[in-house]
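Memo to structure team: turn this sequence into structure tokens by end of day. - J.P.
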Amino acid sequence: MKRFTKILSAGLAASLTLVLASCGSSASSATTTAGSNTSGSAEASSSAAGSAGEVTTLKWVTVGSGQPTNYDAWAEQVNAYLGEKAGINVDVEVVSWGDWDNRRNVIVNTGGDFDILFTNGGTFNNDVQTGAFTDITDLVQSQTPELYQMIPEEYWEACQIDGKIYAVPTYKDSSQSEFIVWDEQLAKDNGIDPSQYTELDQLTEPLTTLLNATGEASFPLSASSLPDYLTFMYDQMNTGLSAIGVRYDDQDAEVVSVYEQQDVMDSLKLMHQWFETGIINADAATKTEGDDYKAVSIAQGWAGAAQTTWGPGMGVDAVAYQWGPTIVSNDTVRGSLNCISANSANPDKALELLQYVNTDTYVRDLFYYGVQGDNWDYTDDTQTKVHKNNSDWTMAGYTQGTFFNVTQTDDVDFNQWDEVKELNEQATPSVLLGFTFDASNVSDQLANCISIVTRYKSELLTGTVDPETEVPALMDELRAAGFDDIVTEAQTQVDAFMAGK
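Reply from structure team:
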């Protein structure tokens, strides 16, 4: 099978270390024979490490739909390329979604065998505080300058805790934009022009029309896909507590009780109205799996995803129109991070691997699409389009690296990543971008409040209960558990952060 390669920039090639450090406690080592596919000075220079015969093997633990069935064929392809180019091999463990939380906790809490670990904002701060990850502040700039330069500065700021960088963000839809997604043909058949509806309260009429036309809930929800977008304009400060936050555009940075804010309460009341009229399904709060097909839904992403992801996923043609602002915050950036183990013997090589995934298109395509010749192929020698042969690849692309060097598929005539990049560039930064809440003084109160919100959240966000009675009941419990202590502590820290900006 013909193997296609992409030549790295001369700057990156020149920066590759020619003498490799041996692999240590958290990674195994292997020796391979470098391949002979080289062309030009940059290619020859970049393969010098591989030609020395020494290869550092790095363990990367991530989440997805489980280990790919053709993993061995994929590993052979990617490791032949990386071994030749940089003297690196990768051993990827893809943990299934259902097993992820437990597996991740075991790995982190035992200082497990990994060099790179996918993580997100829900656990990132705590894991850094416990010493799980390497401080890469200096290393990422000195050893992988191309990686550092390709990711915007504010995204690195979002990965800082106490002024130090502990993660490489996956530069993708790292800002948050919410879109109302429609079954285009169903809307058309019922005289609905989706482009006319850009606010939640405008949706009641068309949703009622679709409910009456189909006899099915037109805005189905489930406990596994709660509409957290109802509070997304409030920066939760990485607390994990949706009931507390600072509105992204509040220059006074007041820490507030989110569910008691008028804009959020209005949305909750609207959800309850939809639930009572059948627009939202009656079992929404207890439904463990979301429906594949949804006549209308709200999803985070970009408009082009209606054609590339949302529509195909439902088996229909879909269209999407933005609702709300585009925001970049710690929460949005930290939704997908890769961290290097504090026990890794080769943090420099781990960063180099992440640099390849983010800057070398061939490596990125292998991670994103799977086995070349099985899951996908380039359509011609120009390598400007990919044809997907199937959808069997079970690694989650969003966990790996940037979207912006993924080769586009041949089933669309536009580059959807251009839209994503534009949304990122136009995003409004949260006033708390770069701020991380230190919960050590209120850790017990925070844990108790998170537990309380978890009990209420499903029924509240699906509209199953009346927010005018449920929110006061929720807040009574939260305040009895120390919610106001958390607010006071957060406000003190936020004020100090704002004063230092």
